[in-house]
Amino acid sequence: MDRQFYDEMDAAIGHPDVEVFHFGVKFPGWNETWSLAENLNSKFPGIQFDIVYSKDFYQEYDSRLTNPVVTHTFGDCWNPMECSRNGLYVYHDVIGTHYAGLLMDLFRPEQWKEKILWKANQFKEQGNEAKFASTPHPVLRGCKSKQVPLRTTMTDGIKAGIIKNATIWGHPGYDLPSGANNANCTLLEDGRYHYNDPRVEPLRKTQRAFAQALRDHQICLFDSSHIRKAIRKYHEAFFSGCVVAADVPIEMEEMFRDVVILLRKEMTAEEVNEVVQEYLKDKERLAWMAEEAFYRARQHWTCRNRVDRLLEVSARVLRGERGYWFPFGFSATCRHYPNMKDYSNGYC
User: Fold this and answer.
1) How far is the C-alpha of 120 from the C-alpha of 92, rounded, in Å?
2) What is the pLDDT of residue 111?
3) Number of neighbouring beta carbons within 10 Å of residue 288
4) Are 119 and 95 spatial neighbours (Cβ–Cβ below 8 Å)?
5) What average pLDDT does this structure show over 208-235?
6) Is residue 10 classed as helix, strand or coil in its secondary structure?
7) DSSP state of 15
């Protein structure tokens, strides 16, 4: 399941300048043989949309959508060549990425010189401050894989008892439980989304458990992966009061300054344990880091912030702007993709 999409929807619905219509593939009334424009015109006759917003799971481009700003955003990409082959549509008015580095790895003008230039925007991942808003133990979050070497080291270290008094919170998964799609939705207004939609309850249940796990721990352990992304776990930990122990991503470095327990991806489990135990002894310092991190996240990383950025980049397109927009700083530096042997992003 997409842990972010419905948080974005909630923020958009609560925004004073936005009216939200929720529709897409496999929704009642969607016709697989029609184009996107035909489906929208059939479902919402007479409505003139200002923005058509889609995410990873739907990438169709329709040239007949001439009035709205057509925006597509996506998150993870562990293989840039594969992502490019699978249909990153540079004809959209706006392409947004969760991670700044992907803009420079996938969307430099010379890579798409035979196509039009679009507006590339960093739609930063965000957290829901209402959900993620502690015992003196660290918690490790996520999964093991070659993409996340430090997290793998820490997982093995916790299981072996090297990293003391720590627990592991596994990956929540992507699939709905059996029978989840059979919820009675006949009372819901067609084309609208409501927070209490029963089809979303499995996601809400996962979020509640996850948020509670963060609030119950003082330190959250994870990493930014081989390609050093500011994954959503940073944001959620900041909102929860759980001090992050991780390496620092190559984007938004100033946001992490002084409020993250710095780790290196080549550290051993013994080294991680030594650092973490030392910080656990300094309660005053941990309290300041948690408070300052929450303040920064509340200023910049809410779902409402994300909706505001969507409106701003759409306004930029309507003014005729083209190119890149980075609302946060980042370092365009060397990154190696572990799923691609001998491939780097061109800055190495």
Assistant:
1) 10
2) 63
3) 14
4) yes
5) 89
6) helix
7) -
Residue 38 CA to residue 42 CA, distance in Å, equals 6
**Burial class for 311, CB neighbours closer than 10 Å (0-12, 13-18, 19+):** middle
Considering Cα of 19, then 24, then 28, then 30, what sign does the dihedral take? positive
Q: Are 227 and 101 in contact (CB under 8 A)?
A: yes
Q: State in Å, rounded, how far the first CA of the chain is from the last one.
A: 35
Q: Is 108 left (phi over 0), alpha (psi -120 to 50) or beta?
A: beta
CA 88, CA 73: separation in Å to the nearest integer? 10
Residue 112: what residue type?
W
Cβ count near 13 (within 10 Å): 16
Contact 66, 92 (CB under 8 A): no
In the CATH scheme, what is the homologous superfamily, with its name and number, of domain 135-172+189-300? Glycogen Phosphorylase B; (3.40.50.2000)
Phi and psi of 49, rounded to 5°? -85, 140
d(CA 49, CA 72): 15
Name 120's bridge partners: 95, 324
Here the tokens at position 215 are: 């609030």
pLDDT, tens only, 105-152: 777 766 655 444 444 455 555 555 555 445 555 655 555 566 788 999
Phi, psi of 32 (to 5 degrees): -65, -25
| Whole-number Å distance between alpha carbons of 10 and 192 | 11
Q: Who's near 78: CB < 8 A, 6+ residues apart?
A: 147, 227, 337, 338, 339
pLDDT of residue 123: 52
42/36 Cα distance (integer angstroms): 10
Domains in the chain: boundaries: 5-126+303-325, 135-172+189-300
138: nearest Cα among 271, 284, 266, 245: 245
Q: Residue 102 phi/psi, 5° resolution?
A: -65, -30
Residues β-bridged to residue 69 = 51
Question: Residue 204: pLDDT band by 50, 70, 90 thresholds?
Answer: confident
Across the range 163-174, mean pLDDT stands at 80
